[in-house]
UniProtKB/TrEMBL annotation:
Residues 191-284 form the CoA-binding domain. It holds the Pfam family Ligase_CoA. The lineage of its organism: Bacteria, Bacillati, Bacillota, Bacilli, Bacillales. This is Acyl-CoA synthetase FdrA. It comes from Psychrobacillus glaciei. GO terms for biological process: tricarboxylic acid cycle.
Amino acid sequence: MTVQVVVKANTYIDSVSLMSLSTKANQIEGVEQAIIAMGTEMNKEVIRNVGLMTQEVEEARTSDLMIVVKAENEEMCESAFVGIEELLTKKNKPSKGSSEVKYSTIKSAAENIPDANLAIIAVNGMYAPREARKALENNLHVMMFSDNVSIEDEIALKQLAHEKGLLMMGPDCGTAIIGNVALCFANAVRKGNIGIVGASGTGSQELSVRIHEFGGGITQLIGTGGRDLSEEVGGIMMLDGIKALQEDEATKVIVLVSKPPAPIVEEKVLAQIKKSAKPVVVWFVGGDEEKVTKAGGHFAKMSKEAALKAVLLAGADESKINKRALNLPLVEEVRAKLKPEQKYIRGLFSGGTLCDEAMHIAMEKFDNVYSNIQREPEFRLKDVKVSQDHTFIDFGDDQFTQGKPHPMIDPSTRIERFIQEAKDPSVGVIVMDFVLGFGAHEDPVGAMLPAIIEAKQLAEDEGRHLEIIGYILGTELDSQNIEGQINKLLAAGATHASSSQNAGLLAREFVVKGE
């Protein structure tokens, strides 16, 4: 194998584009591995860990673009660089007929586009606070996709935004729908009268998609970033988001989604709910029903339940809604196929909250549920590469994404793990999510299909049935063609779950013994 490096001095590309470029570069024929990244210490560490470190990489500066290619020989490396250069050229080339103008600073963009009211920050976390502050000082709302931002900077930026009456979504905020425009990872959904405030990207996506399916629509989906409800940050953005939706005439119902907040922050959120003249549905994964109902909120234990409550509160006719009840005959059918020793679920997720929801559903019946995102230390995986009993893995967690594209863009890491789990004779069910929408992989089921077929054949050769559940998060308005994705799953012999909630329930019920 040959490793070659090109360093482009003072060439900046945002992190969202870098993830997409790296994914495409790894698909170039002959490429064993390709990394396209800015020359930060964190990216160098990733390159060092995968054995691709060179002197050129060591010497790259944070403002330089590093292109690292591993291929069978020099000729293939050179060919790969030609392909990558074409990708870079294509990225920088304006689309035909486009009158797009690029600005090099937030200040110049704000001055030349007076109607602009929001900036998306997707630069290295080291520089993101500086750029976000500039945007806020120019009276722009901010959505910060960047992560690796200190909590002190997050607090300072959110306090500044609060004082100016602006939104500070993030850091590490990947999903929003503002003024019916989807930002970063979001789905194409109907405009309506339900507003969402979410400290969870895929949790917010799931709610918006289910609301769309039940005939409702979205006014605004305000992301907060995953740390907002921590004791340190104090829920500044969640509270400001609730107030914004309370004041928004178009919003009739508010839905909140998050992992359980810090107790002191939860009190603030519940106090805000108590003052709300509009109904508020609360889906805090693993949350406390009594506290929510006491505050006058509408508690939901699961995602589909939350979406259903929201559309009914917004005026939908319940008799016209297909609630997609669980397929109980299928449960009995699959239980009969699994051998007694096939006791375990393996959940392989690209969405953190989807993973969390399936895990909590399993925890209702099993006391041996492990994960890389378990809050109880005794149930945290000792080694994320090795499953224990019932295991649920969030492949979007930092352990899997440092220096690599998110699994919603590049599913390669999950594919490797899927085959590993399929070989385990104690596994009865593997459950996975496939996220559609803006920014996501163009054909997520297609990318996994060869592995599903291989796993099914492997199990059959060993005389056992392996149940594979796929949940596709998306709508008929998303560009990836959801019906086509479902048909691919079914043709490969997998079971399609109609929601995140149903995926978790099916996985749990399939492996229950003795009921």
